[in-house]
Amino acid sequence: MLNDEFGNRRFIIGGLMILVVLIYIIRLFDLQILDNTYQDKADSNAFLKKIEFPARGLIKDRNGEILVFNKPAYDVMMVVREMKDFDTLTFCKLLNITPMNFTERTKEMHRRKGYSPYTPQPFMTQLSAEDYGILQEQLFRFPGISLQKRTLRDYNYHNAALLLGSIGEVNKKMIDADPDFYIQGDYAGQNGIEQTYEKYLRGEKGMEIFLRDAHGRVQGRYENGDYDVASRPGKDLTLSIDINLQAYGEKLMQNKVGSIAAIDPSTGEILALVSSPTYDPSLLVGRKRSMNYAKLLNDPLLPLYDRPMMACYPPGSTFKTANALILQQEKIIREYTAFPCHSGYHVGSFTVGCHAHFSPLNLIQSVQHSCNAYYCAGFRAMMDHPKYKGISNSFEVWKKHVVSLGFGYKLGADVPNEKRGFIPNSKYYDQIYGENRWKSLMIVSNSIGQGEILATPLQIANLAAIIANRGYYYVPHLVKDIEGQQLDSLYRTKKVSTIDSIYFIPVIEGMELVMSSGTGYASRIDSIAVCGKTGTAQNPHGEDHSLFMAFAPKNDPKIAICVVVENSGFGATWAAPIATLMMEKYLKGYIPRRRLWMEDRILNANLLPKKHVSETK
Questions:
Q1: Confidence bin at 40 (pLDDT 50/70/90)
Q2: Distance, CA of 377 to CA of 31 (rounded, Å)
Q3: Whether the Cβ atoms of residue 280 and residue 68 lie closer than 8 Å to each other
Q4: Residue 534's closest CA among 515, 506, 508, 517?
Q5: Which of 193, 232, 481, 538 sits 20 to 30 Å CA-CA off 360?
């Protein structure tokens, strides 16, 4: 019994000793491996590590014009443990801040993830070169303060703000997504090209290591700089936009709400992407960024809203071209198929009105005169055709063709805020009316681009590009070239629609007649064969939107375009002249004397909503 008792005690004592050893091992592991506090203290006593921020890549237009470049800026860095006998009042005067603001900034600095009193922490960012010069002269008076160089964006043009994007401080989500690169206080692209191509533009950070003495004073580079890492500048981008065309478009759209999207059909390269109203991109640079952003955000005309990519409208009569293609492909109509029009389409008490023109019309003439009755009749003939065995099936066939023409889903453009628009499916109508309880007459508005259909200006411009190419397109994109890189294959791969190329011929003939003797006649261009289609999108909240879609020249297309002018009426009145002025500017390089009156009319027009017009007087 006695031996057993001693044996048990021996095991208990041995177990306790092992437990104590394990606790010491775990604690040592925590201190030496997991907890960086003592490493920070040791390193900060011996070394001063300074991040070297790379210069962001330049952004140029398609002709090599530099749009975005860099200018020097400086961050005020603070090592809290070294700030002894600190003259706070003088320091605040030099930075033009109040002592209260100093206190708020230091508290915020303490709350940041990764804060350490032993390493440099950003106190104030983006000092200008002028502010830097003032502080640099007095820096010796402020222990623990150093200046770290970085760059700010600057602009040679006051245009293209939304498509270029801006730079702002990273948030927690961005840091968590790329913790190996970003830390609190870093800056990155927040929207537009700056965001989409951030990893190319930002470059790679460098590091300079300096040796300290026992009093914390810098003695020089550690090991003569052998362990320094040089930063690598970001890659330059060449955009597809023509900055002169972009600037001209923004000028034409002054005092108007709407957008312009222009594409090179042969490549999918975006030539201009105008959102109106717009703003000067330099407003969102430097220490005034937050204040200016708040003003733009609160502007009732929404200058931060990227209309060519995000605004969704009923495409109106521009969509008749898509239905003309689908009805041919499904053998519902042929080029010479005619339907009557008696001032509209009438079934009992149901009427879709139409403007005056001769009757009946064939396919080409229906495009030329934008006949509503023609497309109502053709659409219903397809929906009710017995070969589909039910309207749900015929509608799904119709939708498949519409999607192949670039509607209903995001195109995949290299801009982060693209919207998909909306194309309903048969289940959508089942939910509204009940399964097998809806008829073709109930959805006939789809035939003329109204009803539930919504499209972005970029999608409508892309439809013009598909028609120009007789059946295919490239995903619209803003970047033409990345320094040392190949463009993503998405933008180099041809996307072919479900419509045979032969069916585009009568549609193109009709679009040419729109400009030579139809609804777009007043906006024609001498010596250039333009193929266009006017449109008027119904707006339940006010006056209708003016739309126009076109491409030119007819047999060698170099530009496809969509213009939307909100709350301004017929497509021929405002959108068509703006579009053809843009096309002529791009193709000829100037506006001829014959059309200067039209340019003046557009430039002097104020089509802002009435309450905003009165505010500008």
A1: very low
A2: 80
A3: no
A4: 515
A5: 538
CA distance 406 to 463: 7
Place of tokens 């007649």: 513
Token readout for 159 is 């245009």
The number of domains in the chain is 2
Would you state the structure tokens that stand for residue 435, as one six-digit string? Answer: 């399964």
If asked whether residues 273 and 191 sit together in one domain, one would say no
Nearest to 401 by CA among 310, 319, 318: 319
CA trace torsion 434, 438, 442, 446 (10° rounding): 90
Radius of gyration of the CA atoms of the chain, in A: 32
**Contact by Cβ (8 Å): 257, 568:** no
- Asked, for residue 12, whether it belongs to a domain, the answer is no
Averaged pLDDT for residues 583-605: 96
Domain co-membership, 495 together with 608:
yes
Per-residue model confidence as pLDDT tens digits over 421-466:
999 999 999 999 999 899 999 999 999 999 999 999 999 999 999 9
pLDDT band at 571, cuts 50/70/90? Answer: confident
- Last residue of a domain, which of 239, 274, 297? 239
- Is residue 39 one of the residues assigned to a domain? no
Inside any domain, residue 14: no
Q: Which of 110-114's residues contact partners 24+ apart within 8 Å by CB, and which partners?
A: 112/184, 112/185, 113/172, 113/175, 113/184, 114/183, 114/184
**Are 213 and 274 members of one domain?**
no
376 near 352, Cβ under 8 Å?
yes
> Token digits for 416?
């982060």
Same domain for 336 and 203, yes or no, is no
Asked, as a colleague might, if the bond just before 54 is cis with ω within 30 of 0, I would say no
Q: Are residues 360 and 223 in the same domain?
A: no
Q: Which two tokens stand for residue 587?
A: 């193709």
Q: What is the mean pLDDT of residues 241-256?
A: 98
According to DSSP, the residues that pair with 239 across neighbouring strands are 479
The answer to whether residues 184 and 280 belong to one domain is: no
d(CA 31, CA 20): 17
Q: Count other C-beta atoms under 10 Å from residue 542's C-beta.
A: 10
Supply the CATH number for residue 283's domain.
3.40.710.10
Picking from 214, 239, 264, the residue at the C-terminal end of a domain is 239
3-state secondary structure (DSSP) of residue 444: helix
Rounded to the nearest 10 degrees, the angle between the axes of helix 391-404 and helix 372-383 is 120
Going from the C-alpha of 176 to that of each of 37, 64, 172, the distances in angstroms are 21, 36, 6
Whether the pLDDT of residue 36 is over 70: the answer is no
CATH code (residue 70): 3.90.1310.10
167 burial level (CB within 10 Å; 0-12, 13-18, 19+): buried
- Top-confidence range, 22-31, 482-491, 567-576: 482-491
How far is the C-alpha of 375 from the C-alpha of 312, rounded, in Å? Answer: 22
Q: Is 535 in contact with 549 (CB distance < 8 Å)?
A: yes
pLDDT of residue 566: 93
Domain range for residue 319?
243-287+308-616
Which residues of 491-557 form beta strands (DSSP E)?
495-496, 531-537, 545-552
Give yes or no: residues 379 and 472 share one domain.
Answer: yes
Residues 254 and 140 in one domain: no
